[in-house]
Amino acid sequence: MATALASRTHRPVLSVAEQYSKNQGKGWGVMAKELGIKPGSRAFHEMKQDARGLEAHMKSATASKQKHAQEMQKERGQKVKKDPRREGNGRPR
Fold first, then answer.
1. Among 23, 31, 39, which residue's Cα sits nearest to residue 5?
2. Of 17, 24, 36, 72, which is least surrounded by CB within 10 A?
3. What is the pLDDT of residues 29-82, one digit of tens each?
4. Taking residues 2-15, what's their average pLDDT?
5. DSSP alpha helices (H): ranges in 1-93?
6. What is the rounded CA–CA span in Å between residue 33 and residue 90?
C-alpha cells in the first residue's frame, strides 16, 4: 500500500512508510487523505487497485523464487546421490 500511495502522490516510498509508522493505527485511508487523496475518490480506488496488483505480483514472485530454490535443492541432492565416486567430504575418490 505504501508503494501505491507513494506512486500516486509522487513521494518516496520510505517517506510514506515512515509517516505510516509514526501514525500507526490511523489506517491507509487517513494516510491517503493527509497526502491529498480523498477517500472514496477515483484516485483512491485506483490506488487501492494498484496496491492489490503489486501484492499479487509480489506473492507470485515469491512463490516462483521458492519453487526455484526447492527445485535447485532437489537437483543438487539427486546429483550427489547419482555420483557413486563422491564421499562424505565432497571430493571424488
1. 31
2. 24
3. 888 888 888 888 888 888 788 777 777 767 777 878 888 888 887 777 755 445
4. 86
5. 2-9, 13-22, 28-34, 42-82
6. 60
Residue 15, all three cell numbers: 517517506
Residue 46 to residue 82: CA distance in whole angstroms: 54
Name 92's bridge partners. Answer: 86
At 68, list the grid cell: 526455484
The residue written with cell numbers 489506517 in the block is 27
Residue 80, pLDDT score = 44
C-beta of residue 13 within 8 angstroms of C-beta of residue 3: yes
Question: What's the N-to-C CA distance of the chain in angstroms?
Answer: 56
The number of CA neighbours under 13 Å toward the Cβ of 37 is 24
CA 22 to CA 43: how far, in whole Å? Answer: 24
